[in-house]
Amino acid sequence: MTDHRYLVIGGGMVADAAAKGIREIDEQGSIGILSTDVDTPYARPALSKKLWTDPDFSWDDEVDLHTADATGAEIHLRTTVVAIDRTAKTVTTDDGQRFGYERLLIATGGTPTPLPIEHDDRVIDYRSAEDYRRLRGFADQHAHVIVVGGSYIGTELAAALVQNGATVTLVHPDDVLGGSMFPADLAAAFERRYRDAGVDLVGGRRVTDGHGTDDGVIVTLDDGRELRADAVVSGLGITPNVDLARDAGLPVDDGIVVSATLVTEDPDVFAAGDVAEYPDLVLGRRRVEHVDNAQEQGRQAGRNLAGADEPYTHTPYYYSNVFDIGYEAVGRVQATLRTVEDWAAPLEQGVVYYLDGDVTRGVLLWNVQGQRDAARQVLAEAEALTPDTLPGRIPTGG
Ligand SMILES: Cc1cc2nc3c(=O)[nH]c(=O)nc-3n(C[C@H](O)[C@H](O)[C@H](O)COP(=O)(O)OP(=O)(O)OC[C@H]3O[C@@H](n4cnc5c(N)ncnc54)[C@H](O)[C@@H]3O)c2cc1C
Known about the structure:
The protein has helices spanning 13-25, 50-53, 59-63, 67-71, 129-140, 152-162, 184-196, 243-247, 291-305, 372-380, and strands spanning 2-9, 31-34, 74-76, 81-85, 90-93, 98-106, 110-112, 123-125, 144-148, 167-171, 200-202, 207-212, 217-221, 226-229, 231-234, 238-240, 256-257, 269-271, 276-280, 284-287, 318-322, 325-331, 338-345, 349-356, 359-366. The strands form six sheets. Strands 1, 2, 3, 4, 5, 6 and 18 form a seven-stranded mixed β-sheet that branches. A five-stranded parallel β-sheet has the order 8-15-9-10-11, with helices on one face. A five-stranded antiparallel β-sheet has the order 21-22-25-24-23. The chain has three domains: 2-111 and 239-305, FAD/NAD(P)-binding domain (3-Layer(bba) Sandwich), CATH 3.50.50.60; 114-234, FAD/NAD(P)-binding domain; 324-389, FAD/NAD-linked reductase, C-terminal dimerisation domain (Enolase-like, domain 1, 2-Layer Sandwich). It is α/β, with parallel strands linked by helices. Helix 1 (13-25) runs parallel beside helix 9. The model has no long low-confidence stretch (mean pLDDT 97). The protein is built from ten helices and 25 strands. Bound molecules: flavin-adenine dinucleotide.
């Protein structure tokens, strides 16, 4: 059996940030990382962004997080943990190895929701670097790819593929692309950007079935229509990987339940990232599937594993880049909420406030840089603000 002072289950962005957080406090204690992945930790957002759009962007310099070099962590790849024994303070892997720990971090992220179709090499539920390599192969052949999903991963992949010479059909459930997130005028402009780039949009539809052919795939939609292509890729959200924690008797709600210091009900077991449900100071108890949270919460979890015992007080944002659009959001960005729009340049650069009644619950920064703290401030003070005072509160850059 191998013992580590700090053991991390999962080899994603949280594992990297946690190992670096541990080293801020403890320079010596041994760190073990057990990961199902075939790659050491890397910056996952690059898989749908810069790796497609910036020819100078390099895996080694800008995607690989160099966790082992920076921290001395021992990383075991292709290694899946199947059980945690909290009494013995050990974990067991699928190949029968056992690892002991003093403190454990569960950072298992999530599993992508699979397309409801027969899977072969041409069907990709997009999440990992392996998926990127497979999709890249199709793009390099200028293949026809069906992208399924209208949230940020689907929209980023559709933009990435069309900019790399693929023929792209984007199937999504909204009537207008982005219609569940953005106010109607902004969604219409967003959708237009895709049409102008040559993406074939199939809105208001879901995939219900499909199968492979000798040289491609056939995808069936909920109106019975069949689409043919060389490959299909999806971004349909994730299910958090909570089973290990649940089987070990730890409380699980939407995610693994942790306190403000990111510890579970077991004082030696922590959880962070996409898999953890934590109390956010501004937004309330929640689970966040975004990179800013993975990095900041991972770092804090690492510091706390090493004894810092500090609360996690960072309210995360998320971001997306497609074509010439960059947007960031804090809080709830849902078109079902009432919106107040404040544009420096109409539908090109500005701020959208999302209100529940008169209270701002979310802020969207559209091609506006450097205003995330101002957005957090608005949400923190939301109860005291009236809608008429919102325009101008966050600089739009105009
Ligand atoms: C293509 C893509 C683009 C994205 N773009 C953005 C973006 O633009 N903006 C944004 O805010 N967020 C983005 N995200 C989300 C962001 O990348 C995630 O929130 C972040 O990676 C979560 O980190 P994590 O460590 O919690 O989970 P992950 O990075 O998913 O890591 C989980 C790790 O656990 C391993 N694992 C799971 N179960 C086990 C087990 N039983 N034993 C061992 N190992 C296990 C997995 O193999 C993996 O290594 C994107 C995600 C994807 C997939």
